[in-house]
């Protein structure tokens, strides 16, 4: 389990790095903050970081972990770095961009909504929410609320959040990077569901039959 001090350091450091890379890619502070939509985007990044710190969660392997799935974390990390840097870089140079400030504001709204959906399960599960594919101490199956409709709301939030970031910079590159997230995300979901079936058996099988993974009636 991470101590509150270490979690705070990681959240603050990660937020500063995230915004710094985007600002550098865009051409500097003056250029970045000359765009009202990007000012709003930066404010939302900070607010989501604060909310994420307060939500809890951990990166503990718990009582049992699928270690073979850790490669997904590397894939997520590489795609995240590309996603942070490439859309603002392309936007500032008008390379593979979509037209109009409306696109930017749609992106800001999706970024905020996706971030909220991503954090919602962390608030529901608290420290039982792990960055690893693992069974935590006192793990129980949660099937109410948003989990009564989709089984992996946090991953849906990740996709919407990523798409929002791409559109805030009008970036076709960013949209393609969001699509690329589907590959490691599918592998992660498969690994999680195998582990949960092994832990909860027929209870989880019944839960799977009445819910969708990410999008009701589609997936």
Secondary-structure blueprint:
Elements (H helix, E strand, L loop, with lengths): L3 H23 L2 H4 L3 H20 L8 E2 L5 H22 L8 H25 L8 E2 L17 H16 L3 H9 L1 H19 L1 H8 L10
Antiparallel strand pairs: 1-2
Helix pairs in contact: 1-3, 1-4, 3-5, 4-7, 4-8, 5-6, 6-7, 8-9
* Largest sheet entry: 2 strands, antiparallel
The averaged pLDDT comes out at 93
Please tally the helical runs, counting DSSP H or I stretches of 4 or more residues.
9
Provide the CATH topology. Answer: Four Helix Bundle (Hemerythrin (Met), subunit A)
**Which structural category fits the helices and strands?**
mainly alpha
DSSP strand content: under 5%
Q: How do the SSEs run, as a string of H and E?
A: HHHEHHEHHHH
CATH-defined architecture: Up-down Bundle
Unreliable segments (pLDDT under 50, ≥5 consecutive)? none
Strand order of the largest sheet: 1-2
* Radius of gyration over all CA atoms, rounded: 18 Å
- Portion of residues in helices? 55-70%
Work out the number of β strands: 2
Cα distance spanning the termini:
33 Å
**In total, how many domains does the architecture comprise?**
1
Subcellular location: Endomembrane system
GO molecular function, one term: methyltransferase activity
Pfam families: PEMT
GO biological process, one term: methylation
């Amino acid at each position: 389990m991470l101590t509150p001090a270490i979690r705070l350091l990681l959240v603050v450091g990660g937020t500063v790095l995230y915004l710094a890379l985007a600002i550098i890619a865009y051409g500097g502070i003056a250029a970045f903050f000359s765009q009202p939509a990007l000012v709003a985007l930066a404010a939302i990044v900070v607010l989501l970081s604060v909310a994420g710190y307060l939500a809890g969660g951990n990166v503990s392997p718990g009582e049992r972990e699928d270690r073979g799935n850790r490669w997904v974390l590397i894939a997520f990390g590489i795609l995240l770095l590309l996603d942070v840097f490439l859309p603002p870089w392309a936007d500032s140079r008008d390379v593979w961009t979509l037209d109009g400030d409306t696109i930017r504001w749609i992106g800001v709204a999706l970024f905020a909504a996706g971030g909220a959906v991503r954090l919602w399960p962390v608030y529901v599960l608290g420290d039982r929410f792990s960055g690893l594919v693992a069974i935590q101490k006192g793990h129980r199956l949660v099937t109410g609320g948003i989990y009564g409709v989709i089984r992996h709301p946090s991953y849906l939030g990740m996709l919407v959040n990523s798409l929002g970031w791409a559109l805030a910079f009008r970036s076709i590159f960013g949209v393609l990077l969001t699509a690329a997230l589907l590959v490691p995300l599918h592998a992660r979901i498969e690994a999680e569901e195998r582990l949960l079936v092994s832990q909860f058996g027929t209870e989880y099988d019944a839960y799977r039959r009445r819910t969708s993974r990410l999008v009701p009636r589609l997936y």
